[in-house]
């Protein structure tokens, strides 16, 4: 008779829905002192659910992820504000659950449903979440996790571009710094080559070099130098650099930073050399 009363296995969508409900509970009760036992119980459930989401998306030691399960999970995750809740509640999670949540968000940035990146469409409608992730850099406890999430989010070209043109100084500066860090990472060499082969990206960086903030100019320079160093510049990139050669050389001749930096000066000299030789 026991078999008749077995609970029905949860679908991926069920796991997402329960996760969302638990995140809502955590968000509403995070500051309360009463009901600690209940809160701890809910936190344990939430940690278990996020681990299960990770297992569905990545598979486990015994099986690969199932495409249909990943599609169901992705659709339900972005159908409502689960991503927003997860980002907002991240500081309230324990360390291991933060790690799992970060991996879940990273994977979802690449999941396709009917050939569409659903995460990209969601972020298009919820641009403020990128500012939330950027501001997370100020909190050392969660900077690593928010940074990992942000790296995955800005792989979507449109959001990368939007962050670089943000009117928020902190957002813009951190976005350029993060972009530079990503492009200089050897594991991203293929991404870097694609990036520096784009005339549109070059124009964005040239505009950032003219920013009123010296700090933003410096961060932009560390990305711009990759365009100059590219030995296989596309014709359209070369044409832009040649057209603006005189302006660029004048700019770099007077481009200085407050403290002495031999590496900066060496990089600047190399950029001047590369542009002069075009």
TrEMBL record:
Annotated GO biological process: intracellular signal transduction
MF (Gene Ontology): protein serine/threonine kinase activator activity
Pfam families: Mo25
InterPro entries reported for this sequence: ARM-like, ARM-type_fold, Mo25
Family statement: Belongs to the Mo25 family.
Protein's recorded name: MO25-like protein
Organism: Oryza meridionalis
């Amino acid at each position: 008779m026991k078999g008749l009363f077995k609970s029905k296995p949860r679908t991926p969508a069920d796991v997402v829905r329960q996760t969302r409900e638990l995140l809502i509970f955590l968000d509403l009760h995070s500051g309360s002192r009463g009901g600690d036992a209940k809160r701890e119980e809910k936190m344990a459930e939430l940690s278990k659910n996020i681990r299960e989401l990770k297992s569905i998306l990545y598979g486990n030691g015994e099986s690969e992820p199932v495409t249909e399960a990943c599609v169901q999970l992705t659709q339900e995750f972005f159908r409502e504000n689960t991503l927003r809740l997860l980002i907002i509640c991240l500081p309230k999670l324990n360390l291991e659950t933060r790690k799992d949540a970060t991996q879940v968000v990273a994977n979802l940035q690449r999941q396709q449903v009917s050939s569409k990146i659903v995460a990209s469409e969601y972020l298009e409608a919820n641009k403020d979440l990128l500012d939330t992730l950027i501001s997370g850099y100020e909190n050392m406890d969660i900077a690593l996790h928010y940074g990992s999430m942000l790296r995955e989010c800005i792989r979507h070209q449109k959001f990368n571009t939007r962050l670089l043109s943000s009117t928020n100084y902190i957002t813009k500066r951190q976005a350029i710094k993060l972009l530079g860090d990503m492009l200089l990472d050897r594991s991203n060499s293929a991404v870097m080559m694609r990036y520096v082969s784009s005339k549109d990206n070059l124009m964005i960086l040239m505009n950032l070099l003219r920013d009123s903030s010296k700090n933003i100019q410096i961060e932009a320079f560390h990305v711009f130098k990759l365009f100059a160093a590219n030995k296989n510049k596309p014709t359209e990139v070369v044409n832009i650099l040649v057209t603006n050669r005189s302006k660029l050389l004048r700019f770099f001749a007077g481009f200085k930073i407050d403290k002495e930096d031999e590496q900066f000066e060496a990089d600047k000299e190399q950029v001047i050399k590369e542009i002069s030789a075009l």
